[in-house]
Amino acid sequence: MKNWFTVEPDVTRIMNKHFTPGRGGQRIEYITRHHLAGILTTEQTWQVWQTRQASAHYVVENSGRIGQLVWDRDTAWSNANLASNQRSIAIEHSNSGGAAADWPINDTVIREGARLAAALCWFYKLGRPQFGRNVRDHREFGQTSCPHHLANGGKYHSTWMRIAQEHFDWMTANPSGIPPTVAPIPAPAPIPEEGFLMALSDAEQRELLTKTRDIHAQLGPWAQLGQNDKGQNLTLVDAVADSRRKQGHTKEK
Question: Which ranges carry the N-acetylmuramoyl-L-alanine amidase domain (predicted)?
Fold first, then answer.
């Protein structure tokens, strides 16, 4: 299926006859399950129905590919019952073997057919797939065993229904069809370039800072040391230099 949320099939081969345009004023109420009684592709099924007065909306091929042969808005000739045809969407499931093998259906067809039914239930707001309410069998409306092993009580029925419900639940939880956005992992903080302080512990760095502040405070500038010719307080270094100069240890340049 190209898109479950828009019910876009893999291939479209619309019938040119053996269906009825529109739905006679009826609305879609349920999905009807069928089996093809054959191993056919969408194109092969279209060809068979050119000479047989029958049709269905969708075919699930043996490969799992889904084809559409009648538009959802139109009435397929599928259930041998006009009222049912007008109110349902018919899905044909291809077999993987013939009559001698008792018309088996492979796991891929079961899975894709169930998912298609779930998508249609979701798209047309029919509710979670439930047999007898929005999922029905062909044999309810005519003298036929169809959909054979897919029918209620058949060996494929429980698996098909479970997959349909699980797929519907997934679509309901993810209506956009897009997986939840995963927040990007933040980039790690840059590692600072290593300097000599990195070799000290936190306690040692605090001790160094305290001593540095003490030294700075002791060096000045202080008013007690006097002032220069600009009226600025001298630092300890300036005061020592001034004292040495006055004692004749340095020469004026």
Answer: 16-156
